[in-house]
């Protein structure tokens, strides 16, 4: 810069100084020096310790003769003499470098606790002590700073975050944790806490200095020192931003890395910015070095043209205008001779340099042996004197000194004049104090600095202390001081001027600043009216964002989303949401994916459509897309306008779980686009909203205020509505929710008192009794504007408070003053006279002891046609306010007001709910309960009572892998999804595992942490039989093992019943028995398996059994359905033959004796193929499957003799006749279902359909490779079967077809046989299992046949005819061994004849009775 002589005054002084250049004005005063203890100080600081108006001197350092660290306070006075003041010492041990030269460390001064007195921080030599000043007479050790043992350290104070409280930067080695410490400790009014936002290098054996080098009003920082490597030297410069965040300046290359260095910011060139002096040991140069760095241009350091050849380690620097020429002079003191990388000190020295005002500096005084030195005005003449401390011979106690040097300059230096034109104001959480420049007889305005004092009482220091060390200022040269996060209240403030010689003016005239609790924020939002808005964290970054709709000043409508980034709202330009206005907006996760969706009702003008609109937008990877799936958009008349698009006003829709299934349902009211009134409820069907047509009691209304509220605390959401029906009757109508979730009129709740138009409602439990009350504003039927607070009196609402009436606004509840109760905001038009938008009001009523009074201290825009909502958007623990609408001057605003309550009295979050209980489960419902937590006391002692807490619940499904599947855990900032009771019943849950947790919300809308997650299981499936094993131990003993299938657990107190019947003949012939079943004797039951023993009676025929199981019940009282399974021996012995039955009893196969070679194990398993899964061609005709397909294994097992296969099938079917078509619906299995389809239920024989048994043969090509075997129809136990002879195992099924032809090459038409050849109709089953024989024959066409049974004497015993006319194919008739009188024939050989149309066939069969 240029170095001008700016005035004649400076020229004259300059002449004097030039004549005296090179001569020192400082003369040692031995008398004053003798008063000072002669310990070597590593640090000297100057401040008015006892607030008597005179500066005191504070010495500190390590003195082995005093056993450690010492502090000596030397008092100054108005006579210019010194006296011994406070003294103390801390016993400790020295560092290894400076034991005999004062030690390494320092003291730093600041009014840390803002009590108006200077406090002391001392560190080094394994000590770290913060000492609070006790009214200037003594010091007490403070616990604000954590206990540390630091060496090779250095600490300094500055208001880093601009909150008025001094913060501490400390570097060194913490011997407690054995680590290098470089930390910024933030002053939080009652302790000092580490700031984690900046990571500093690990340096020690150095120093740090604060200074506002970039003139932006906040202190910046320079640090220097060594790393763990002793041959290292590092310096770092950090620039401070307005919120106290330090960022490294990587371009400061002129600043050399220094070990054992020190630094000092001062304005050497008197240009109004801070230059920099640094000195210390530099690794690259391998020596001590000093740099004088000019700040030019602003914020950039470069070396002055003239540098010094003197440098020190472990030193101090101070600067002041000691010769009264308006320029800063300086001194440097410390170790001027070192070795081993400044690890060993050989000598000490101090030098004072005079500023030549041309960028050069002259040495004027040298103090050999000085370790530290400081300027101070001792003799009270306004001219700086000098003190120094050190030793001329390190290690020799007799050579140590602490001297006073009086400045002999005879020039006068008047105190400067204080500033004037003081002004202050608040913006958001910032307060700005400004003033005009002070004046001085020597220094120009650019050379003056300032101190500011701010308190909450006259002359107070509660925000910014008036106690500042000598030759320092708490503002600097700027004429402005900004504060971050200043609490609300009244502030008293004044400013004083500080000249270049350290002299201070009187304080200016004291001014006051009142900061209300709510102040305008810096947010920039488009002004809107007819608006709706909502706070919610839609992008899931843990801070609330904002959705905003309305009409702008220009008349255009908008729907915009604003993302919150670090407390700044900016429009999310990635969204494309159609604009609406004059309605309602809700954030809600109705799709249960954990992301907030957006719903709106209102007016819309876009795409050539102007009218009412209901819009649902779903979250899709960060973008909101229209929901076209919900029935909101149903368009029955295809006019392109949704039939359910409505607008009812600012409370025109609402969300709540009215059916208690966990998800959120929707209600809306108002006019549709054909001006039909609506009151519609849509239930949530997995994220698709469907109209609930069961709600038949609802009265459509417009305008519409609708709200879900649990009025009677029964756990069911009731519906409150206000509006005009088709008769124009305006009233409040309440619909109570019953156990079936049908809403019925609540007669006692209904009232015309609350009938309003252009109104709005806000529900909350304002009196803390656990029941929801409301505030209502609007225009009543008498034409009066009202605002009522109505109390819930269990079965009706009673007006408890009448407030200022308003309409076209929106009331809002919130504890904005964090005093533990709900306050009320009212906005809108206060008069029906004048244009719409005139006479607006915005009032906040503070609640005190259930009474409401207007807060007169606030200054908030009065707005009409307005909307308001509380929300803590800056996450500082208080409720901020969003407000929009018309002002009286017709301006349109959308303003966020920052609440300052949280700066001193932040609302603490409630504790987590606890003792979660999910044991109350019945079928598909669960009642979840928990204990109400405590809401901790805030700083002012307030809290939300337990009855006032509300809750949100999150329920997830493990099967769906979705922790939000049933009840979302993501909510907006409003009452949606909250409830006041400590329990929640959820219904209609599917079977599966569920997780759940709950959190509490207080009056300040602060949510607790989520509770611990708990888990429950819903079991709606009754136990079933998994397997039944039948172990045939002997001919008549069977061990049955029944294994149950149950996902939960079986109730061991409810034992199952196991019964057995004969598969074909349940009547076992027990005379007089009411039950034809056989009881199985239980052996054991362990909840998984039941074991029992069955003894077959002698009269039991065969070994096949039908096992019946019922009566089992699980722990959720789900009772099993009766289950029946057919069992046969696992093996059929060849010489005896036998029967195998499928477990479902629909298929059985009978093998005669010796039908197979060797014993065989047969399994019959269904493929679970539904009937009529497809129609297909068999022999050119349409054919239907009417049974399952069954695999009879082992496949491809050939039979020596034909076996008899029976397959059950339906005996009737459903014929559907349409105008142009007629077909059989095989899927229909009963008459009622058929009649529902307008079909005819007809018997298979009457239908023209021919049933047959088919064999699946893969060698046949076609839609289904089926070989048509034919078969005979029989009835067993009122069940229809087809039976046919087979000669191989494989896959079989029952079919029907319109084709009555059959391939003849597989039929033997000239033969009849009986299988088995010998049977025992009255036998016990011990040898021959067969109690009947099968007469097997084949037909080539449909014809009648007759079988006759003769004994060997030729006497006819029995005539048998088929139940139905046989069809072509293999056929079977059954003879049970009885004659025509029903008596069993005697043992013997019998002749069987089969009479066909043109032939009689013969065979024989043997009867053997045992």
What does the model show?
- The protein is an all-beta fold and 1410 residues long.
- The chain is built from four helices and 100 strands.
- The strands form 25 sheets. Strands 80, 81, 82, 83, 88, 89 and 92 form a seven-stranded antiparallel sheet that branches. It has a five-stranded antiparallel sheet with strand order 78-79-84-91-90, with no helix packed on it.
- 2% of the residues lie in helices and 47% in strands.
Task: Sum this structure up briefly.
This protein is an all-beta fold. It is about 0% helix and about 45% strand.
Count every beta strand, where a strand is a DSSP E run of 2 or more residues. Answer: 100
Question: How many helices does DSSP assign?
Answer: 4
Strand-residue proportion: over 45%
Average pLDDT works out at 90
Biggest sheet features: 7 strands, antiparallel
Radius of gyration: 50 Å
**Helix content percent band:** under 10%
- The best one-word shape is elongated
Question: Given the helix and strand composition, which structural class is it?
Answer: mainly beta
Distance between the termini: 135 Å
């Amino acid at each position: 810069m240029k170095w001008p002589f700016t005035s004649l005054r400076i020229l004259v002084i300059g002449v004097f100084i030039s004549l005296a250049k090179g001569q020192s004005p400082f003369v040692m005063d031995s008398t004053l020096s003798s008063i000072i203890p002669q310990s070597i100080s590593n640090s000297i600081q100057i401040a008015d310790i006892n607030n008597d108006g005179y500066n005191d001197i504070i010495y500190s350092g390590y003195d082995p003769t005093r056993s450690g660290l010492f502090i000596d306070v030397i008092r100054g006075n108005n006579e210019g003499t010194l006296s011994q003041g406070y003294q103390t010492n801390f016993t400790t041990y020295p560092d290894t470098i400076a034991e005999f030269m004062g030690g390494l460390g320092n003291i730093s001064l600041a009014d840390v606790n803002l009590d108006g007195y200077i406090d002391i921080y001392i560190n080094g030599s394994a000590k770290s002590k913060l000492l609070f000043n006790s009214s200037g007479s003594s010091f007490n050790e403070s616990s604000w700073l954590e206990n540390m043992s630091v060496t090779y350290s250095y600490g300094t104070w500055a208001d880093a975050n601009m909150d008025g409280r001094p913060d501490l930067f400390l570097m060194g080695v913490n011997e407690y944790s054995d680590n290098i410490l470089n930390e910024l400790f933030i002053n939080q009014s009652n302790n000092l806490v580490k700031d984690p936002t900046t990571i500093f290098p690990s340096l020690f054996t150095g120093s740090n200095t604060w200074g506002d080098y970039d003139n932006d009003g906040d202190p910046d920082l320079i640090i220097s020192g060594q790393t763990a490597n002793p041959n290292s030297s590092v310096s770092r410069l950090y620039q401070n931003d307005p919120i106290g965040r330090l960022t490294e300046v990587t371009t400061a290359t002129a600043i050399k890395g220094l070990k054992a260095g020190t630094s000092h910011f001062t304005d050497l060139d008197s240009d109004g910015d801070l230059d920099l002096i640094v000195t210390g040991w530099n690794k690259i140069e391998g020596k001590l070095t000093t740099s004088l760095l000019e700040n030019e241009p602003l914020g950039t350091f470069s070396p002055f043209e003239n540098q010094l050849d003197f440098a020190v380690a472990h030193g101090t620097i101070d600067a002041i205008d000691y010769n009264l020429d308006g320029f800063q002079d300086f001194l440097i003191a410390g170790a001027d001779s070192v070795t081993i990388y400044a690890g060993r000190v050989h000598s000490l020295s101090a030098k004072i340099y005079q500023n030549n005002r041309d960028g050069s500096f002259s040495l004027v005084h040298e103090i050999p042996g000085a370790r530290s030195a400081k300027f101070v005005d001792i003799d009270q003449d306004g001219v700086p004197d000098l003190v120094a401390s050190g030793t001329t011979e390190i290690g020799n106690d007799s050579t140590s000194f602490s001297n006073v040097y009086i400045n002999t300059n005879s020039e006068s230096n008047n105190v400067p004049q204080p500033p004037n034109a003081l002004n202050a104001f608040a913006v958001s959480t910032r307060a700005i104090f400004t003033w005009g420049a002070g004046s001085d007889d020597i220094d120009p305005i650019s050379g003056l600095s300032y101190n500011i004092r701010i308190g909450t009482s006259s002359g107070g220091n509660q925000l910014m202390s008036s106690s500042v060390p000598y030759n320092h200022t708490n503002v600097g040269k700027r004429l402005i001081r900004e504060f971050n996060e200043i609490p609300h209240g009244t502030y008293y403030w004044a400013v004083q001027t500080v000249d270049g010689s350290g002299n201070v003016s009187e304080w200016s005239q004291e001014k006051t600043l009142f900061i209300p609790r709510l102040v305008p924020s810096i947010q920039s939002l488009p002004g809107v009216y007819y608006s709706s808005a909502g706070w919610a964290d839609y992008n899931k970054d843990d801070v609330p964002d904002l959705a905003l709709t309305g009409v702008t000043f220009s008349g255009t409508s908008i729907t915009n989303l604003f993302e919150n980034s670090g407390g700044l709202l900016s429009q999310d330009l990635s969204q494309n949401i159609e604009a609406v206005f004059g309605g309602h907006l809700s954030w809600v996760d109705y799709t249960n994916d954990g992301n907030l969706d957006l719903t709106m009702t209102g007016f819309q003008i876009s795409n050539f459509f102007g009218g009412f609109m209901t819009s649902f937008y779903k979250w899709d990877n960060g973008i909101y897309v229209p929901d076209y799936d919900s029935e909101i958009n149903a368009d029955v008349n295809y006019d392109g306008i949704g039939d359910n698009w409505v607008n009812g006003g600012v409370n025109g829709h609402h969300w709540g779980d009215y059916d208690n299934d966990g998800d959120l349902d929707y209600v809306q009211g108002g006019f549709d686009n054909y001006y039909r009134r609506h009151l519609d409820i849509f239930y949530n069907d997995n994220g698709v909203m469907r109209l609930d047509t069961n709600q038949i009691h609802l009265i459509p209304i417009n305008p519409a205020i609708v709200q879900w509220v649990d009025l009677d605390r029964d756990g069911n959401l009731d519906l409150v509505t206000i509006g005009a029906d088709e008769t124009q009757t305006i009233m409040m109508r309440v619909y109570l929710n019953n156990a079936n979730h049908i809403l019925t009129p609540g007669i006692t709740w209904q009232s015309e008192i609350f009938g309003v138009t252009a109104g709005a409602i806000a529900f909350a439990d304002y009196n803390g009794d656990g029941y929801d009350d409301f505030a209502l504003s609007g225009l009543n039927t008498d034409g009066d504007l009202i605002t009522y607070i109505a109390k819930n009196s269990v079965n009706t609402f009673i007006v408890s408070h009448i407030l200022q009436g308003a309409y076209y606004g929106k009331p809002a509840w919130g504890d904005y003053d964090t005093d533990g109760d709900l306050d009320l905001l009212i906005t809108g038009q206060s008069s029906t006279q004048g244009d719409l938008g005139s006479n607006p009001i915005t009032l906040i009523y503070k609640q005190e002891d259930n009474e409401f009074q207007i807060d007169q201290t606030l200054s908030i825009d009065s707005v009409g046609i307005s909307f308001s909502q509380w929300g803590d958007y800056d996450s500082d623990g208080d409720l901020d306010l969003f407000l929009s609408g018309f002002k009286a001057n017709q301006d349109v605003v959308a303003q966020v007001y920052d609440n300052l309550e949280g700066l001193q009295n932040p609302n603490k979050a409630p504790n987590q709910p606890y003792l979660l209980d999910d044991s109350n489960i019945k079928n598909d419902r669960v009642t979840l309960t928990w204990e109400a937590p405590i809401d901790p006391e805030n700083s002012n002692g307030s809290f939300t009572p337990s009855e006032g807490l509300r809750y949100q619940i999150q329920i997830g499904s493990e099967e769906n892998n979705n922790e939000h599947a049933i009840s979302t855990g993501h909510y907006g900032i409003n009452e949606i999804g909250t409830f006041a009771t400590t329990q929640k019943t959820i219904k209609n849950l599917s079977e599966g595992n569920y997780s759940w947790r709950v959190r509490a919300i207080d009056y300040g809308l602060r949510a607790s942490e989520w509770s611990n997650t708990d888990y429950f299981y819903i079991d709606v499936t009754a136990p079933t039989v998994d397997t039944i094993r039948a172990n045939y131990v002997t001919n008549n003993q069977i061990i049955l093992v029944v294994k149950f299938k149950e996902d939960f657990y079986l109730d061991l107190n409810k034992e199952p019943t196991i019964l057995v019947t004969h598969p074909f003949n349940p009547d076992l012939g027990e005379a007089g028995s009411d039950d034809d079943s056989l009881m199985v004797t239980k052996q054991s039951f362990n909840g998984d398996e039941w074991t029992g023993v069955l003894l077959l009676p002698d009269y039991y025929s065969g070994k096949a059994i039908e096992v019946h199981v019922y009566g089992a019940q699980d722990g959720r009282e789900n009772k099993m359905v009766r289950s029946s399974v057919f069992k046969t021996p696992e093996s059929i012995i060849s010489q005896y033959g036998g029967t195998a039955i499928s477990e479902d009893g629909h298929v059985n196969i009978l093998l005669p004796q010796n039908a197979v070679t060797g014993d065989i194990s047969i399994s019959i398993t269904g493929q679970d193929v539904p009937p009529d899964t497809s129609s297909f061609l068999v022999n050119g005709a349409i054919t239907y499957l009417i049974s399952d397909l069954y695999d009879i294994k082992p496949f491809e097992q050939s039979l020596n003799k034909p076996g008899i296969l029976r397959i059950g099938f339906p005996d009737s079917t459903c014929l559907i006749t349409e105008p142009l078509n007629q077909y059989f619906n095989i899927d229909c299995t009963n008459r009622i279902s058929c009649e529902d389809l307008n079909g005819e239920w007809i018997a298979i024989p009457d239908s023209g359909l021919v049933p047959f048994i088919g064999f699946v043969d893969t060698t046949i090509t076609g839609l289904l490779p089926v070989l048509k075997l034919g078969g005979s129809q029989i009835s067993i136990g009122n069940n229809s079967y087809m039976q046919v002879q087979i000669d191989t195992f494989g896959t079989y099924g029952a079919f029907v077809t319109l084709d009555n032809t059959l391939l003849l090459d597989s039929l033997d038409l000239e033969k009849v046989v009986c299988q088995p050849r010998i049977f025992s109709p009255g036998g016990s089953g011990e040898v021959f299992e067969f109690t009947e024989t099968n007469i097997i024959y084949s037909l080539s066409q449909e014809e009648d046949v007759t079988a006759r049974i003769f004994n060997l004497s030729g006497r006819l015993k029995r005539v048998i005819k088929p139940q139905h006319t046989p069809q072509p194919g293999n056929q079977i008739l059954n003879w049970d061994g009885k004659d025509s009188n029903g008596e069993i024939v005697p043992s013997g050989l019998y002749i069987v004849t089969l009479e066909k149309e043109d032939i009689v066939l013969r065979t024989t069969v043997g009867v053997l009775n045992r």
